[in-house]
Predict the structure.
Amino acid sequence: MSRKRNGMREINRARRRGLRPHLALAGLAAGLAVTTVSADTLAQPKDNALERQAASYIQFREDVAAIEAMPFNNAEVTREAHRRLAAHDSESLSAGWVAYAALVAADQPGFVEAVEKEIKKKANKRKGELGGADGLLSHLAQDPSYLRQLPGANDAVKAVLAMTVQDGARIAELGEAFKSQAYAMQKTSWGKQKIGSSQSRLDEAAVYGRKRGAPAAPVLARAENNGVVAPSLASAREEWAADWGAGADEGKMTEKNAQVVIDRILNLAARYSTDKLNPKIVEVYAQNTKSERCLSMAKLTLDQCIAATRTPYEEAFCLGEHGLKDVATCTGWVAGADSAS
């Protein structure tokens, strides 16, 4: 009976937090099965700003997956691909990538352990040092690279770099496929047929982007232990998985500016892990200026390229080169990906 009463309390608690009862039961079952995870396994954060921002990048992943599944057998394939790829603005895509990278970092056991050790530290009044999560954030305020120096944090950096280079590989691979199809389509009647004016196609893509709306943030089965939270990305749909990309390359930081971006990612991850996030903090730290500028130029170049097209095969080349491969370059540089060379 006591277990039943505990179950009802868990359901009521979940309802107050906005969760559906069946998720609360799943969380209770997980808590009973795995003793190292607290009973609040599925408790959602005070603010899901990081997930909401990351959803912009995940929506691009979803579009890539959808385009991959489309057969090259009619002119609509390039039209649909253009609508989807042109719907992403550089600021949201760049910030979304940083936010998602922070979730990947926060999901690594080594990083969780590093944060856990930090927040266990007691305050030192004599030295004027804070303890707990506030102490960790104080160190970060004084030294943005503080987290990168912690034992275990290297696991998070490796995971982010691997995700980056592998995502870039999958996106660039689709770009190459489009360029190859551009040549093959010249041998088909539909690939060489005249299509609507370039301006009407650009306008169509713009309208599609405006009507699409903001992507929805997922409800992640966050795991909490000893005051440290991990997002449990594996609990979300496939496009949220860290191994969504292709290949097994690890990636490496070859540019000094990459360290600045990684420090921002780890800062967001640490704040997520200690439930110290809000929309303003995400806005400040989810920035990658080099990627944003690169993505903005890629979007401009894609529009210019589409403006010069008259047939589907010409569109295919533009989309492969500027809608896909350029995007892989703009995000891949952080991890020294081949696509960024």
In short: The radius of gyration is 22 Å. Residues 1-41 form one domain.
